[in-house]
Amino acid sequence: MTWNVVITDNNFQSDEPERRVLENAGFRLVRYRCRTTGELIEAGRDADAVLVQYAGITGEVMQAWPKCQIIVRYGIGYDNVDIRAAERLGIQVCNVSAYCLDEVADHTAALILASLRKLLPFHESVTRGEWDVERIARPMRSFSCTTVGLVGFGRIGRNVCRRLKPFGFGILVYDPYLTPGAEKEFGAVRAETLDTLLAASDVVSLHLPLGPETRRLIDERAIRKMKRNAVLVNTSRGGLVDTVALAKALREGTIAYAALDVFEEEPLPPDHPLRSCGNVLFTPHAAYYSDESTVRLQTQAAEEIVRWFRGEPPASPVNRPPNPRR
After folding, report:
1. Is residue 316 assigned to a domain?
2. Count of structural domains, the chain
3. Which end of the chain is more exposed for a tag (fewer CB within 10 A), N or C?
4. pTM for the whole thing?
5. pLDDT by residue (tens digit) across 15-31?
């Protein structure tokens, strides 16, 4: 039997890594560039398995995919897939949880270092023909006098901690699911509440999944708990931050700076108030990227599908349907 696999959408230049894995295992692969619900429904109508990147996979969409047994989301986050609906329909959902741990940690550390050393403002000043260090630099604390607060201390948060410790930063972590004392292995200090971390940190960096409990975790109230010279860094999920409230805080000087790789709406709309703030460093959801990581992502996503149809347990399940279609 030949199983049909559909790619609903992705931004990769080639589907050769997936094709190599799937076609060698006897699967048929078709790639689409779906943008609407109607296009998604039509693309997956005869699919036994679906690979998805950014498209919104709702219950309505999945209801129209009667043969679909498994959906694999390219990446770590999976908030664009209605997990509960998939569970009710017997569809297994998986992510690719470990393909870019180093890349995201590297990108986060780079944003933190660039923000604290004000590399972009210095660059823009020199480009304007200026040569005035102190006017741009003040205030700028030594790294040894700077506390970085990590909200979420899973694999990426821990990798960020490892990268920053040699610079002399104090590391404060908040993670309600962290085993007591686990932070000590990394030379970090545990904050008992998020508010404690926000009030004590010079940099607040987010490393947690997006869900009902964490959506807009950093809202106007949370931002007002932060220091006026604080930097907010987000390489996790855009929906963790109320970006309109953040823009207002940056304009008013409630906090000093932000470095953002992810946004509530992507691409960032041309008229979004963040664009006119000035005291923001943007990257275009690029933290995951290296030439090697994209190949790992595509390959591992395809391997998860092969594993499923061989009757093996998935490597990275995000739900466990009580009555799977398999």
Report:
1. no
2. 2
3. N
4. 0.93
5. 999 999 999 999 999 99
